[in-house]
Amino acid sequence: MRAQRLEDRVVMVIGAGSIGPGWGNGKAAAVQAAREGAKVIAVDINGDAARETVQIIHDEGREASPFEGDATDSDTVQAMMEHAIATYGRLDVVHHNIGIVALGGPVELEEKDWHRVLDINLTSAFLVCKHALPLMEHQGSGVILVTGSIAGIRYTGVPYVSYSTTKAAVAQLCQSVALQYADRGIRANCILPGLMDTPMIYQGLKEGYSATDQREMVEKRNTQCPTGTMGDAWDVANAMVFLASDEARYITGQNLVVDGGITCKMA
Ligand SMILES: NC(=O)c1ccc[n+]([C@@H]2O[C@H](COP(=O)([O-])OP(=O)(O)OC[C@H]3O[C@@H](n4cnc5c(N)ncnc54)[C@H](O)[C@@H]3O)[C@@H](O)[C@H]2O)c1
User: What global pTM score does this model have?
Assistant: First the structure.
């Protein structure tokens, strides 16, 4: 029988809930990691969302612990790491998954929204690295994963300058960490989803298609994809499990694009 790919690993997913009903990337990643044998810390600013994910994992007979907290706050991020050590004794993988969208280019976007997106999408990822890396260095191993976006490498047709900028930045954050820590057993990689059918798009991106209803938005997104359909949260979760596992032991500093090929036609 095949060994489970994350057997006995402690995996923290930050943004492990889902913003609406159904499967978000973080929720699917947490559940998939548990299915592969990991002990999961499900972190979310929304405690109910974190507990829902943990309940799903427990219902499948797997191990998980919730943590309610805001990843933009340094002390809270430190407390997450302490929770992992206190609960499971180590921390093998941290997957930073939170990200929000604010529509608009530099002229339209309010300065307060620029700062809000930077805080949530980028500063939190920096804080996660800041507090996780010393633990991982002490262990002599660890994996940092960040959910970026193809919006960090391509213009996707919607002007959201703060989102694109932060998604480009987290990819570079991973690369920088990867190189600094490559000889200490620590890897860092960024996952770049394309157009995915997750609860988030019905919240944050709905406005971008203001002349259409929800069904038309989905059709428009499906049509843009070379395969004819968007990906889903499990596509991101499977990429996360791969990068977290030893199968990816020689992969670091990379962007793994999970987009059904859409960036190939956006060149
Ligand atoms: N769906 C897509 O088409 C798509 C495409 C590319 C990239 N992404 C990326 O995927 C990620 C989102 O995935 P998802 O489907 O899990 O989204 P989601 O919004 O459903 O879930 C994210 C979770 O993060 C939590 N969260 C938000 N701010 C937080 C904070 N400050 N501290 C702790 N938790 C916080 C939310 O409460 C929510 O439960 C984002 O990084 C997004 O940019 C999505």
Answer: 0.97
Tell me if residue 202 is catalytic. Answer: no
Q: Tell me the pLDDT tens digit for each residue of 137-180.
A: 999 999 999 999 999 999 999 999 999 999 999 999 999 999 99
Helix pair 161-181, 124-139: axis angle to 10 deg = 20
Q: Rounded to whole angstroms, how far apart are CA atoms 170 and 189?
A: 10
**Alpha carbon of 2 to ligand 1 centroid (Å):** 31
Pocket (CB within 6 angstroms of ligand 1)? 14-15, 17-19, 24-26, 44-46, 49, 70-72, 97-99, 120, 124, 147, 149, 193, 195-196, 198-201, 233
CATH number of 10-261: 3.40.50.720
Domain range summary for the chain, segments of one domain joined by +: 10-261
Whole-number Å distance, alpha carbon 120 to ligand 1 midpoint, is 10
Condensed to tens digits (0 to 9), the pLDDT of residues 245-262 reads 999 999 999 999 999 999
